[in-house]
Amino acid sequence: MKRTRIFLLAAAALALTGCHGKQKSSDFAIPETFDAAKHYEITFWAKNDTNKTQTAIYEKAIADFEALYPNITVNMRLYTDYGKIYNDVITNISTNTTPNVCITYPDHIATYLTGGSSVVSLDDLLTDEKYGLGGSEVMFDAPGRDEIIPQFLEECSFEGSFYAVPFMRSTEACYINKTYVEKLGYTLPETLTWDFIWEVSEAATKKNADGTFAVNGQKVMIPFIYKSTDNMMIQMLKQKGAGYSDETGQILIFNDTTRELLKEIAAHAKSGAFSTFKISSYPANFLNAGQCIFAIDSTAGATWMGTDAPLIDISADSLVDFETAVMPIPQFDAEHPQMISQGPSVCVFQKSDPQEVLASWLFAQYLLTDEVQIAYSQTEGYVPVTSKAQNSAQYREYLSKAGEDNRLHYDVKIKAAQLLLANTDHTFVTPVFNGSASLRNAAGQMIEDVTKSVRRKKEINDAYIEKLYQDTAALYHLDQGAAGAEAGASVQKDLGPLPRTAVILLSALGAAWIWIAAYIIFKRISH
Amino acid sequence: MKKLTALLLSLSLVMVSGAAVMAETEEETAAQEDVKSEGVMTHDEYMEAAVDDEVVIETYVQAKQSWWEDSETGAQQASIYTQDKDGGYFIYNLPCSEKEYEKLEVGTKIKVTGYKSEWSGEVEIVDATYEIEDGEYIAEPLDVTELLGKDELIDHQNEFVSFQGMTVEPIKDADGNEAAFLYNWDGSGEDGNDLYFNVSLNGETYNFTVESYLCDNTTDVYAAVKELQVGDVINLEGFLYWYEGVNPHITSITKAE
User: Fold this and answer.
1) Are B43-136 and B142-255 equal in CATH topology?
2) Cβ pair A4:B69 closer than 8 A
3) What residues contact residue A287 under an 8 Å CB cut-off, 6+ apart?
4) I want to staple B36 with a disulfide (CB 3.0 to 4.6 A). Which of A33, A232, B40, B180 is the partner?
């Protein structure tokens, strides 16, 4: 099996000018009746985790939907990378060739909306009596609006409107080599803390005389690897109660807390206790080879984690036998855990024919049925986004069978899903605005930068971080526009006191003006 | 006097010509020996450098994998397979405009300054800058068939290589269905995605890839893989990429004689 690095390609150099972000998509009026006599061909851009089962579930959903609505044909285009979908959508907005239905992230929708009212506001559709969620004319057993988990639906709302419905939800989990933690003389606490992770990770860097690591006897050991460093920074700041951004798009990330966090991360990178996916590789590969103790990745990556994982990317002779613990991400305040909510949502794009939009909406709604929700959630550590699915006997039975086999009921995967189910009230999302996707990338890039720099023997001090703030704000355009104005202000360098020569020059100029004024006054008086 | 002048001019011309010939010969020799400029590492020195060390190399473009522009930052980057006469170098995400990318034709000599990195076993140069230099070299594929399964194979990482007389073996998708090739490693993809297929030699089976950014679905090799049948005996060329073990990025397939 090979889950190779995603090489980004292509891309959209499209500059979306003009800010129409606050324009609600009002061009669409729900037709009184869906026209079943006319044929509609809609496109669905779907994202899967390079997972054949997920592809098969999409295909089955399409086939079942088409059987219910013979006048609708759904053409699917498969992606394995959200970034590629994002780029392609942006490119297609300019040519008015967007898909009808698309798996996406709210951050991305905010950018799509800057290109005009390209995404349909779902406010009216969600509650429409006939074609809304669970509406009277909907030809399948759809969930009602109140059956969508409120937090998850709320994540799709910004600028006062709903622009998507959630499709699947996940969070991050810490997958732990419990065997090695105990070998190092530690016991996993009830709630994982940053202090605990750093302490154990530092202990794991101890080497034998022959250069191998004491804990695993191998030449390689990166005790703590984080897959998504943007999530790492976002969650650390949230847990610290520090600034990241606000609802208006004000950039708050360039603050003293971020500075201290970056210094701490750099210190652990310097000792070899910490690295990232971008720098080293998939945390799962190191974890499964006994070369990592704490691997933080999405719950939707659970099927790759652990000795008995159904999906393995390393050779069989590299696999190490160990006990895998699945815990929420580390916390600064163990009493008040906070973790990110993430996962795909579904949006519907605006088209000139309202009937085509309605057909698209019906398909999007179909993705929320129990059959699709339960089947897709079982492919990874996802959870269904409806209480209807979560509380169904079928899903409850699935959860109860954790560990009965290493495929459908792989215990690490089900534990990851249960982690989110138990902590839904502790999840949060970051504010969505035009530019929030850039801010997210910037947050992670700062961790990547300090980690790389310290590995390259550079000193991470205040001057380094000040420059990092300036460079990051400029690179991600966080110092431009309405939101950027604030960012620019927050990263403006303190230039310190004026140089002595400047003080003398300004004093001399001041004195000269005083003398001139005095001369003029003297002349007037004397006349 | 005129004769003397003519003689002196002739002698000068001869000397200049001789010097030019000598210079050309020296250049050819330098090209053949791939003499490095001052401050530039040999391939051996590059291999000895530690991960995260700054490295400076002179190398020749052998294939261009991809060029892309980050829609968030506007950063333009390219990933390229390069090689000198002593070994290969993969340059990952090299800052490069689309116009500059077009200038990087196969054989172009470039001087690259960056940091040595390792990602899942693939040794590469990242965070690099480059400049085009005079010189050209296009590597012939090195036959590494006999090195498959041996530790020495990694010594040729990133080089342009060939495999002779390999037999196509079935590959299983995520559902256990057998095929001659798959779109994506588990069969989850579609036309345009990476192709994965198995080939064997002397009872050992190896997994090869047609990397879709390097060779997309309009290329001959992509079409050739789609025509493969289990049992076909084929010769292959490609770049010796690494991902948790050898993961050749195949660029050419022909039926073995």
Assistant:
1) yes
2) no
3) A175, A177, A225, A293, A295, A305, A306, A324
4) B40
Q: Where are chain B's structural domains?
A: 43-136, 142-255
Q: Which CATH number belongs to the domain containing residue A243 in this structure?
A: 3.40.190.10
Same domain, A90 and A176: no
- CB–CB of B120 and A282 under 8 A? yes
Q: What is the pLDDT of residues A110-161, one digit of tens each?
A: 989 987 779 999 999 999 999 999 999 999 999 999 999 999 999 999 889 9
Residue B102: predicted pLDDT = 97
Strands (DSSP E) along A80-229, which ranges? 101-104, 157-158, 161-162, 165-166, 168-169, 172-177, 224-226
Q: Of A297-311, A456-470, B66-80, which range is least confident?
A: B66-80
Q: Does residue A1 belong to any structural domain of this protein? A: no
Put simply, whether A314 touches B (Cβ < 8 Å) is yes
What letter would DSSP give residue A136?
Answer: T
Cβ <8 Å between A4 and B72: no
Residue B244 with chain A: CB contacts under 8 Å:
2, 281, 285, 313-315, 318
* Mutant choice from B195, B204, B239, B244 vs A, greatest count of A C-beta within 10 A: B244
Burial label, A309 (beta-carbon count in 10 A; 0-12, 13-18, 19+): buried
- Closest-CA distance, A442 to chain B, in angstroms, reads 10
Instruction: With both helix axes pointing from N to C terminus, report the angle between A256-270 and A462-475 in degrees, rounded to the nearest 10.
Output: 110
Contacts of A279 in chain B (CB under 8 A): 117, 119
- A182 plus A165 within the same structural domain: no
Partner-chain contact B115 A55, CB within 8 Å: no
A12 and B79 within 8 Å at the Cβ level: the answer is no
The number of domains in chain A is 2
- The dotted CATH code for B142-255 is 2.40.50.140
Last residue of a domain, one of A360, A383, A400: A400
CB A104 within 8 A of CB A346: yes
CATH number of the B43-136 domain? 2.40.50.140
B73 touches chain A (CB under 8 A): yes
3-state SS class at A377: helix
Q: How does pLDDT run across A271-302, given as a tens digit for each residue?
A: 999 999 999 999 999 999 999 999 999 999 99
Interatomic CA distance for residues A373 and B42, integer angstroms: 56
Do A311 and A364 lie in one domain? The reply is no
Q: Do A200 and A334 share a domain, yes or no?
A: yes
Assessment of whether the complete model's pTM goes beyond 0.80: yes
**B178 φ, ψ to 5°?**
-95, 145
On whether any CB of chain A is under 8 Å from the CB of B146, the answer is no
Q: B92 with B117: CB under 8 angstroms? A: yes
A54 touches chain B (CB under 8 A): yes
Contacts of A32 (CB under 8 A, 6+ apart): none
Q: Are residues A376 and A303 in the same domain?
A: no
Residue B26 has pLDDT above 60, yes or no: no
Does residue A232 share a domain with residue A127? Answer: no
Domain boundaries, position A87: 40-170+342-400
Per the domain annotation, does A520 fall within a domain?
no
> Is some CB atom of chain B closer than 8 A to the CB atom of A153?
no
Do A62 and A125 fall within a single domain? yes
Quick check: B71 and A90 CB within 8 A?
Answer: yes
CB contact at 8 A, A330 and A192: yes
- Put simply, whether B54 touches A (Cβ < 8 Å) is yes
| Residue A415 belongs to a domain | no
CB within 8 Å: A4 and B70: no
Mean pLDDT of A332-341: 98
Asked whether residue A81 falls in the same domain as residue A224, the answer is: no
Which chain A residues touch B185 with a CB distance below 8 Å? 1-3, 50
Any domain includes A334: yes
